[in-house]
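Run log, item B.
One chain of 422 residues. Sequence copied directly from the ordering sheet:
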Amino acid sequence: MATAKLVIKKSFIKKDGRTPVYIQYIFHSEEKITITTGIEILPVHWNPDLQALKEKAGETYGLNYALINAQLSDKLNEFKFFLGNTIARNIKPTIKFVRDHFSQYLIQRNNTAKQVPDKLITIYDHLNDYIQQKKEAVANDTVKDYRSLIKHLKQFEKSIGEPITFESFDYLFYESFIDFLFYETVKPNGEKGLLANAVGKQIKNLKAFLRDRIRKKYCIDIDLSGYKTITEEVDKIHLTRKELSLVYHFNLNGAEHLEVTRDMLVLGCSLGLRFSDLSRITPEMISDSILSIRQKKVRKRVLIPIMNEAEEILRKYNWQSPSISLADFNKDLKTLGKLIGLDSHFEVANYKKGQEFIKRYKKYELLSSHVCRRSFCTNEYLDDTDCHLIMKISGHRTQKAFMTYLKIDEDVANRYCVSNFV
């Protein structure tokens, strides 16, 4: 059974005749560690049974012996509180754990301006608290990303065989966690490893969470300068005007169940909205062939002209979105694309820590809800629509972000780029 008490070492006497008072922690009978309290006394003044200074010490050390005993008692109680907090988090307070974490715990206690709420015990308590605070200010997809971070951290914690605490987040943690995300973490489909942008998103969200806890003084100041967010340009597809016309006018005889998917796809490519906004259009948002909608992700209102196929589709559904879930939409898009014959070949390059991986797909295999905004931006750009107007609708804040979103050949981009951003 683990025990902690105050002791001195009579075998260790300094030149001035004093010896430090230690906290002696015994995890098992043969596993022990001593931690200095910072207080030094003459051995003759120590009462080992009471673990305190004897009354005859008086004010030998500049303070009354009773005040020094109170200080020693506070230090022992602080250590016992650390042990209790460790056990409450289902962590074994081994000698190694105490050696690695108690000093950081003291720094945290000294640097914390306010008491950490009792309910916030584990790192996952803190993450859930952070999610609750962010829920009203961010889109549902962002909340899902935060919950994914919890899942990946728990998988990583299991793989390393020790609990993750705030003291864990040094640069070595970052390197190990990056490797784990690239090669070991298990995705919902059972595959192992994330691609670069998915890894980058996890690191970005981890940094945001840790900065929030640091600002609230719930943990010590952590050096995050080495936590680099990883990004790469993603090689994805768009649907051309010709392909969209083919989709819209394709005879679905025998596949009528794909009609809602087809209409939602064409509507999305015409309006340039994310699925989270596209799926909640109502008649109240439309006036004089203009859609006025506040985008959920960027909290920004946009005005979008409703023309041609978009007007026909919305009229068909009584001026509201076709009803379909995101999961069904993404699944049925591939079925629809295959049926229509969108089967041109694409090579997609992804990178893991500088190593290139090439996979070959048919175009319909790459169809997802993201194709809507990407197709809208690319087609409008190639139609010479003013780039600033496209960006107002798409929600891109910078030219750089907008240009990487477009899916056009480099030669075409160079031809249009100079004239469009002046």
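Observations after the first pass:
- Residues 77 and 129 are 28 Å apart (CA to CA).
- DSSP finds 15 helices and ten strands in the chain.
Flagged for discussion on Thursday.
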